[in-house]
Amino acid sequence: MAKVVVDNFELSDEYIERLLRELEREGVKTEADLQKYLKNYTYLDDPSRKCHLLISPNDKKQSFALPYEE
After folding, report:
1. How far apart are the two ends of the chain, measured CA to CA in Å?
2. Which of 31, 36, 51, 70 is the most exposed place for a label (fewest CB within 10 A)?
3. Model confidence over 33-70: pLDDT tens digits?
4. What confidence tens digit (pLDDT) does each residue in 18-30 have?
């Protein structure tokens, strides 16, 4: 799989697959599409909830919480 990076956080293959499934209705079908979709997102680590947060720059796009990989 191609590398997808959000705010210096590199998404794992599992995270990429999850997001592609989630965003299929938005027309996001490839890693390149996903990188474009997430280009203005901000990454935050949330250890209290044990997840990675991908924060949308506006209200029209959804934000994502990705659980830590075990």
Report:
1. 20
2. 70
3. 999 999 999 999 999 999 999 999 998 899 999 999 87
4. 999 999 999 999 9
Please name the amino acid found at residue 58.
N
User: Which of 6, 5, 2, 3 has the alpha carbon at shortest distance from 43?
Assistant: 6
Round to whole Å and give the CA distance between 63 and 66: 10
Sequence-distant (6+) residues with CB within 8 A of 30 are 2, 20
Output the pTM of the full model.
Answer: 0.90
Closest of 14, 10, 25, 17 to residue 62, by C-alpha: 25
* Closest of 58, 54, 70 to residue 9, by C-alpha: 54
34 neighbors 19 (Cβ within 8 angstroms): yes
